[in-house]
Amino acid sequence: MKHTQGKWIEHNGGIESSTGRTVATTNVYYDSNKIKETNEENKANAVLIASAPELLEALKGLLMWTKTTALYHLKDSELLPKGLERWKELVSKAEGED
To answer: How far is CA 47 from CA 14, 38, 44, 54, 81, in A?
Structure first.
């Protein structure tokens, strides 16, 4: 499974690709008693979702760096392999492979 490529941006409570294609919308939650808070929460959710492709690429880069550089220099660390496995799981999940 592949996600929409390119940079995503928040636009009016939704998420658009760099080509202007709608990727997702967060305007499904609405509380008429708290309109301002609802709009702020929807925008915050959209900003978080829009950062997903960049976060995925950063995690992949960190995983590659850790496999090559950090494992060589930090051979005795017990925490590193646990972190590596978790990062691999998260990348697989984000790419629809779990």
So the answer is: 9, 14, 5, 12, 31
How far, in whole angstroms, is CA 84 from its chain's centroid? Answer: 17
Measured between alpha carbons, how far is 87 from 18 in angstroms, rounded to an integer? 27
Q: What is the 3-state secondary structure (H, E, C) of 6-66?
A: CCEEEECCEEEECCCCEEEECCCCCCCCCHHHHHHHHHHHHHHHHCHHHHHHHHHHHHHHH
Sequence ranges of the domains in the chain: 8-50, 54-94
53, amino acid identity = P
Q: Which two tokens stand for residue 66?
A: 């850790």
- Could you give the 3-state DSSP secondary structure of residue 75? coil
pLDDT digits (tens, 9 = 90+) for 10-45: 888 789 998 988 898 876 656 667 777 777 888 888
Q: How many Å apart are CA 22 and CA 13, to the nearest integer?
A: 11
